[in-house]
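Final report, results section. Input specification for complex C-07:
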Amino acid sequence: MGLPHVTSVVRPTSLEEAYDLLINADGAARWLAGGIDIVRQSPSDDTTLIDISALPLHDITPEQEGRVVSIGAAVTLTELMESPLIAPLHHGELVSMFAGVASPLLRNLATLGGSLGSCHPWSDIHTLLLALGAHVEVYDGSYHTVDLADVAPQRSVSRALYTRILIPVPNGNQAASFEKFARTKFDVALLNCACCISIDAGRVESARVVAGGTPARAARIQAAEARLLDTNLDDAAIRHAADAAADEPGLREDVRASAEYRRVLLKTGIRRCLLRVRSRTDLGSGSLTERGVS
Amino acid sequence: MKIDLTVNGKDLVMDAAPGETLLELLRREGYKSVKKGCGTGDCGACAVLLNGRAVNSCLVLAAKASGSAVTTIEGISGDGELHPVQQAFLDGGAIQCGYCTPSMVLTTIDFLSRNPDPSDDEIRAAIAGNLCRCTGYDKQVAAIRDAAARMRGGPHEA
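Structure output:
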C-alpha cells in the first residue's frame, strides 16, 4: 500500500485548527500539500497527515498597491502558469521557468508552498524566486514574513506552515532572467541560475545573482553581484561577473555533473542571464549578443 | 476511513485506508483502466482527471481526493460513441500495447481543453509525463493534432 504507516489524514478548515493539530500530534504529523514528496518519501514517523487543501491558501492577488503579488501556498504550478497576474512578470520568465519544472501531470499536483518547503537543491523555482527577492509568510500560531533566503527546510528547523509567497513586481528599471541546464527540458537541473538587476541613472543599483543545483541548494553569489554594482552592465562587467560566479567555491561534483562542468555551465548561464537582462533594460544596446555567448 | 468521490459522474462512498493512494483505491474498485507503472509519478500510466486536471493517481492519497470528481477512461465515452480523442487515437493507429493509452487520452483531454489549437512542440510538452515504450510518440502527436482539429470542428487529419 502507498503509505502503510499513515493512520490518519485530517483536513482542517482554519489555520488555527491546522496548527493545533500539528502541535498536538507531538512530532508525528506532517503537512500534506500537493503530496508528491509525501507519497514518494514520507518517513515512517509521520503517522498523521494534515491536508491543507481546505485552508484559504489558493488566491493569487496584487498587494501593497500592486508592488507585490501574493500567492497562496496551496496554488498549483499549473494555476500559476495560467494566472494573468503571473504571466507578464519579468517578460514571462516565471511562466517559462515553471514550464520546465517536472511534467504537466506533476504540475497539476505540485503547489508553490510545497515546492519551496521541500527544499530540493535542484529546484528551479527556488533559484528564480530567490533572485527576485521573494518572501514567504509562515504561520506558527502567529504570522511571520521571512526572506526566502532565510527559510530553512521545514523538516529540520521549523514546522511552521507556509501560507503565502510574496513576489515583488518589477518596476520599470528592473529586469530578471533564468537559465537551466538539464539533460531534457523537464529533467532535474544539472545546474540553474538567475539574475535580477535594478538600474538607476544608467548604473546597476542592485544585483542578485543566484545559482542552484550546484549541487547544493540555491544561494546568492555575492562575488558576482559585487562585480556588477555601479557598472553600466557593459561587456566587461558581464564577463567579470560570470568569471566570479565560476569561481564560486560551492560548486561541487555529484552523480549528475562534475564540478568542472558546473563551472562552465554557471559561467555560461550567468552570461546568458545578464545579456537578457541588459536587453530588457534601457542599457540594452551592448555589443554582446546571445548568439555569441558560448 | 470513508472517501466521497464522484467517479465518472457517479457519487460513491468508498472505504480506504488513510495511506492508500487513489490509484490503489480505483483499481480495487474495478477501474482497471487506471494502470500502475512506476508508482513514483514518472511514467504517467496511472493518470486520471481529478476535477478536470490530469494527475498521477499514484501520488494522490485517496483521502486527499475525497470530495473530488474523478474521471477515468471508462467515463469519457457515451451512447456508444468514443470521445473524439479516443477516435483519433484509433483512426491514427496511435496505439501499440495500449498500456499507456488511457492515461495518454486523459492527459490529452485536459490539455486540449486549455489549448485547443496546439503546435507539435506544445503537444510533445503536454505528454512529457506520459511515457510510451512502443510507439516513439509520432503517431500519438499526429493523433492529438487530429483530435484537436475534430474538437474544433475542423477537418480530420486521419
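Chain A touches chain B at residues 1-9, 11, 32, 35-36, 38-40, 49, 51, 53, 78, 82, 99, 102-106, 108-109, 185-186 (CB under 8 Å). Chain A has ten helices and twelve strands. This concludes the modelling results for the funded period.
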